[in-house]
Design goal:
The chain contains 5 helices and 4 strands. The termini are close together. The protein has a 4-stranded parallel β-sheet with strand order 1-4-2-3, covered by helices on one side. It has one domain. It has about 120 residues and is α/β, with parallel strands linked by helices.
């Protein structure tokens, strides 16, 4: 299950595979054409409440992941769409956050990899 993460502001590359934006809000200053998306799975992003609470504070990272994983577990429909894309080949989860280590795409990748045996 090849999964990569990447800031959406970085150039698209052939090795990206299926490019999926996993943010609820559209990235500032980026046209849809320049984004070169294959999918925009808003429903896989954290809830607005969780996103505001986290505020990209690394001190809240562990708690954010726990809460976000619970939200993801409850959203099997959106997960099924992502798993279908993964079955077709490599996937790059795109995000707009500046922090490359503490963002929802990194957490979503960890969630998927920790459950790689699930359908």
């Amino acid at each position: 299950m090849p999964i990569a993460t990447k800031r959406i502001y970085e150039a698209a590359e052939p090795g990206d595979g299926c490019r999926i934006l996993v943010d609820r809000l559209w990235p500032r200053g980026l046209s849809r054409e320049d984004a070169r998306l294959d999918l925009w799975l808003k429903d896989l992003s954290p809830s607005a409440e969780l996103r505001r609470w986290f505020g990209h504070d690394p001190a809240r990272w562990a708690a954010f992941q726990t809460r976000y994983f619970a939200e993801l577990q409850a959203n099997q429909t959106a997960l099924a769409e992502l798993r279908a894309a993964l079955a077709r080949g490599p996937v790059t989860l795109l995000y707009a956050a500046r922090d490359t280590a503490h963002n929802n795409a990194v957490a979503l990748k960890a969630f998927l990899e920790s459950r790689c045996d699930e359908p």
